[in-house]
Design goal:
21 helices, single chain, five-stranded mixed beta sheet, 60% helix, Serine Threonine Protein Phosphatase 5, Tetratricopeptide repeat, 3 domains, 470 residues, binds zinc ion
Length: 470
């Protein structure tokens, strides 16, 4: 929900920025050695503190090669030089089987393998394909434990929420590169998953001290949140279900946990059956906080309804224990779960807010609640098209509420125009490697955002939505 959007902000933005920059990187000079690592280092420049200098990876020039030997490796060089790292690796794998009679070439190939593998790994990581990237990094790591492989494995396991394995690679990497503040910051998130709050707080204190003045407020905010969570954690307990790991106040909230877990598990099944959203492969972390503590652990206003910043963080007031309030809690849980599942599908990239917030509202309400759109007492006009494209945080408070409300209207308009299966169709194309601009998201139903917007605006002005698919 919009209110919550302001909260998980800092860390969510850091993550989105990191993944986005990894994707945007491409070798600048095709003739020179490709530099997969420089993408990561560029990303590391976003958060505060010094970042280690890039470590370009190059293939060693072979010596003592005759013409036949040189010819055997030329295609590998050519592919590598143009940034086709996976192609270069595939050629090298093929060549290994074919050059058994050429000891020079075989020795060179063996020596180059870690660079070829890590370069291919970074290439896949940048397009969100951590499954394949991990295969390359692990092969590389087995040959030689390089920093490039450790960093790639740390990031991929982190992205895939396999925190225990991620931790080992973070530790190995940071032992040699303690100045990589971006990785240190991500590591504090790993520590939080393991309830190792004092360590996380210690690292954040160091990061605040070392940060440039412009970066200090955001880091200071994260430090204070972590201190709040550290304090809260002394009262907490953990319970797990198939797809969730729930942290809650041991005494006050114990009665609530079966309901929370069953709401979330039921929603996973429902979203999968109705909209094709895949269940999470690893447990999603959910943390319940007492309403009065929520502000101090998120650095947001105490009236926020919930947030997703990699974890579902949900404030629970004592009134939520009654029947009416529990319906409200269910909606909040389902809403945040949609954000979590979309993040898993889209490689934690920033989706257009109309899509992310609209879908979260559409899926979190039950069918009847969404069947009649509530225009409210003063619906006002439909916002300009541009209002839906960038973070609602950049809008004034006056426009942010309507943008949020009208995002749901846009989603309902999709269903009205394109039929009951349209959201499922759209979601089936959402993937780590898919385009996520508004037109690309609508392409599976042959839609364009300008047309959707025009239709929605017309319906809005008429204060009616055609009988939709609901
Ligand atoms: Zn939301």
């Amino acid at each position: 929900m919009l209110k919550k959007a302001a909260l998980g902000l800092f860390f969510a933005v850091i993550l989105a920025t990191l993944w986005q920059r990894l994707r945007e990187f491409s070798p600048r000079d095709l003739a020179s050695a490709p530099r997969p690592m420089s993408a990561v280092q560029a990303a590391a420049a976003a958060p505060p503190g010094p970042s280690p200098s890039p470590k370009p990876q190059t293939l060693a020039s072979p010596s003592d090669f005759g013409e036949a030997d040189a010819a055997a490796v030329r295609p590998i060089f050519a592919a590598f030089a143009t940034g086709d790292f996976v192609g270069a690796l595939n050629l090298a794998d093929l060549a290994k089987d074919q050059v058994s009679q050429r000891p020079n070439v075989l020795a060179w190939l063996t020596q180059q393998m870690p660079v070829l593998l890590t370069s291919a790994g970074w290439a896949r990581l940048k397009v969100g394909d951590c499954d394949q990237a991990r295969v390359y990094f692990e092969r590389s790591h087995a040959l030689k434990a390089t920093q490039e492989a450790n960093k790639g494995l740390a990031l991929c396991h982190y992205k895939q929420k396999n925190m225990r394995v991620a931790r080992d690679h973070f530790l190995a990497y940071l032992a040699a590169e303690p100045g990589d503040s971006e990785m240190q910051l991500l590591y504090t998130d790993v520590l939080e998953s393991e309830s190792r709050f004092p360590e996380a707080v210690g690292i954040l204190r160091q990061l605040v001290q070392a940060a440039a003045p412009a970066e200090q407020p955001a880091l200071q905010q994260r430090l204070e949140s972590m201190e709040g969570r550290a304090q809260e954690s002394t009262l907490e307990q953990v319970e797990a279900s198939q797809h969730f790991r729930l942290t809650y106040r041991a005494i006050e909230q114990a009665d609530l946990t079966p309901q929370v877990l069953s709401t979330l598990e039921d929603a996973v099944v429902e979203f999968n059956e109705q909209f094709g959203l895949p269940p999470p492969l690893l447990p999603i972390e959910v943390v319940l906080y007492p309403r009065q503590a929520f502000g101090s652990v998120t650095n947001g206003p105490s009236w926020a309804e919930g947030l997703f910043d990699g974890r579902l963080r949900i404030p629970v007031s004592s009134s939520r224990l009654d029947v009416l309030a529990s319906a409200e809690l269910q909606t909040v849980l389902r809403h945040e779960l949609v954000h979590a599942l979309l993040a898993l599908m889209s490689d934690s990239r920033s989706l257009p807010p109309w899509f992310d917030e609209g879908l979260a509202q559409r899926l979190s309400c039950n069918q009847r609640a969404c069947a009649v759109f509530d225009f409210g007492p003063q619906p006002g006009g439909f916002l300009p098209e541009s209002s839906f494209m960038s973070s609602y945080l950049s809008l004034s408070a006056v426009n942010a509420g309507p943008a949020y409300h009208q995002s749901l209207f846009l989603i309902l308009t999709i269903e009205a125009k394109h039929g009951a299966a349209s959201l499922r169709q759209i979601l089936s194309h959402l993937a780590a490697g898919s385009s996520i601009d508004s037109d690309a998201l609508l392409a599976p139903v042959n839609g364009r955002f300008a047309d959707l917007y025009a239709s929605a605006k017309g319906f809005w002005q008429a204060r009616s939505l055609p009988a939709a698919s609901l």
